[in-house]
Every structure is written in C-alpha cells, then in structure tokens.
Amino acid sequence: MSIISKDIQKAVQLLTDEQLVAIPTETVYGLAGNIFSEKAIKSIFSTKKRPFFNPLIVHIPSAEALENVVTHIPEKAKLLADAFWPGSMTLVLKKNSKIPDLITAGKDTVAVRVPNHHVTLALLEQLPFPLAAPSANPFGSISPTKPSHVENYFKNELQMVLDGGACKNGIESTIIGFENDAPIIYRLGALALEDIEAAVGKIAIKNKKEQSPDAPGMLARHYAPKTRTFLVDDVASEIEKHPNKKIGILVFKDTLNDENVTEIILSKNSSMEEAAANLYSSLHLLDTYNLDVIIAERFPENGLGKSINDRLQRATFA
Ligand code: TXA
Ligand code: MG
Fold first, then answer.
1. Strands 261-265 and 293-297
2. pTM for this structure?
3. Which of 73, 125, 143, 316 is deepest in the core (most CB within 10 A)?
4. How far is the CA of 238 from the centre of ligand 2 (A)?
C-alpha cells in the first residue's frame, strides 16, 4: 500500500505521537518531526543517515512565531522576513534555550523558516510545536520534489508522505545567517540573489566548499545522482569525449537534436524558475535510465541560474 496520503489529521496524529511524516513545501519535501521530541529528532538523523554535526531547519507557521525560537532579531532579518515569508528563505539566528542542542548540532544559532505551502501551513497551525525538517532524502542524494521520490527512498522506514503535489520552486531555500547583524548567504537557493539584494542591499556569499561548512548543504558532493555527472558549457563537445556510452543530457532551453542521447530540456520557455522547478525531478528521472553518464549544461550566472549551477556542481564528482 502506498504511504502517500492527503490526510492532514493523520499527519497531526503521527507527529503528536513522535513519529515522522514527510511534508510538502514549495522548495523540496521535508522529513518532519516535533522539535521537542528527542525520539523524533533522533529518528530523522537515523532515517536519513545524516551525521549529527549537520543541524536541522525549524519550520514555523508564521513570522510572529519566530519570537518563540530565537533571542535576537536583527533589523535586516525583519526586513527579509517581511519580504520573503512565507517563502523559500531560511534565517539563521541566535537560538533561545528551549531549542534542543540536537536540532542545532550544539551551535548557539538555529535555522528557521516559514514554508509557503498551504498544506504544511495548515498542518503547522494545528500543531503546538514547530517541525524540524531536513530534505526528505538519504544524506547526499538528490532532494525529493514529488511525493513519489520520497516514497521511493523511504517506503520501508516511513508511515506517511503528506501529499502536496509537486514542489513549485524545486530547489532548497536560500539560507541567510548574520555576522554582527549583517546578513550573509550561507547557501544559495530558491531566491534569486538580485531579489534579496533589492530587499537588504549588497550581501556577502559564503556558499563555498569548506572543510567544516556553516551549512553542510555546502559539502562538496551533495544533491548527487548515482550516475556519474558532468557540468559543462559545451554539451556537444563533452558528448564526443564519451564514445560508446549511454548518455543522458540535461540542457537549459535548446535541443541538441542528437538521436544518440537521452535529452531533457529544463525549460523550453527559457525560464530559470521553470528550470529550477524541473531540475531535481529530471535528475531523478535520468538516474532511473541506467545511463553511463549524465552531462548537464551550465546555466547563465544570473538570477536562479547561479543557484542551479551550484546544485549541478555538487551533483558532479569533480
Ligand atoms: O528548502 C529547504 O530548506 C528544505 C525544506 C524541507 O525546508 N530543507 C532543507 O534542509 O534543505 P536540509 O537539512 O537538507 O538543509 C539544511 C541546511 C543544512 O545545510 C544545514 O547545515 C543548514 O541548513 N543549517 C541548519 N542549521 C544551521 C545553523 N544553525 N547554522 C548554519 N547552517 C545551518
Ligand atoms: Mg538536504
């Protein structure tokens, strides 16, 4: 029997009983549990096989609820919350003493967001506790953007995927932290940099590969398909480097007209938003075709192209 269901009351029941439920958001599906239940939080880490040093995002029903989670809200955090919540932005702020160390991996900060999905907002409004929810994929795998992706990963471990359809934005939230009250981007994501800067001015980016990353979404190889993946400017010449191989290609907007490869076009309308929304489901699909290699086309480095390139880069072995 399928674990995919639209029954919000059942999700309320399971979460209240300290069980996990996969929840829809506008970015990707999350693997959710009560932030105050040690049992639920430990099972998030064990289900994902996620290392305990990698902290979780806390999901709250409204910007007003932020006061229950953090001790200090910088002026620019308020501006950002007004501009983008509910939405695809996570703020990292000083945590208050109620937030368990297990959620934050012992850090004195907590990552928080108000997701923009009516099903999960309705769920959060009925629960007396916030939900911790990392993306609902095994550690290092491609994030899920459809209920079936989660079911394929966790049908033996999980009782329920709350069905909210396909995720509208399709890549993870943009994570913004603060140093001396100045905002810094820790992870590029579903918001275009230009839109964030329109709200709070020029902003630094720390989205680099690091040994001990601030946000382990930044570990070098992350969001990765099982198939060996390349990211290049010129897909046609990369194809020539792999003779006699079964090749899948992922291109932005224009077909290559090559009958010998399996091609997915991310947006025939040249829309970066549409391409982002299709990105992970296309990688999931290519990964089912038993290909030898996937060759992805690099995007223009503006708008969401920057975030898409970041995820594609992390999907490669390079
Ligand atoms: O769109 C999203 O953000 C999705 C949906 C489900 O909300 N969630 C998501 O969670 O992508 P996850 O666990 O896959 O990524 C959370 C990222 C990790 O890279 C983690 O290191 C970072 O957030 N993070 C969490 N708490 C942090 C903190 N206190 N300081 C810095 N980074 C933090
Ligand atoms: Mg993740």
1. unpaired
2. 0.95
3. 143
4. 29
Q: Which CATH number fits domain 228-315: 3.40.50.1820, 1.10.10.10, 3.40.50.11030, 3.40.50.970?
A: 3.40.50.11030
Both ends of the chain: CA-CA distance in Å?
40
pLDDT tens, position by position, 52-107: 999 999 999 999 999 999 999 999 999 999 999 999 999 999 999 999 999 999 99
Q: Which atom of ligand 1 is nearest to the CA of 218?
A: 19
pLDDT tens digits along 263-308: 999 999 999 999 999 999 999 999 999 999 999 999 999 999 999 9
Ligand 1 neighbours, Cβ below 6 Å, are 25, 27-28, 30, 54-57, 90, 92, 104, 107, 109-111, 115, 133-135, 172-173, 175, 177, 186-187, 214-217
Backbone angles phi, psi at 28, to 5 degrees: -145, 170
Query: What's phi and psi for 155, nearest 5 deg?
Result: -60, -25
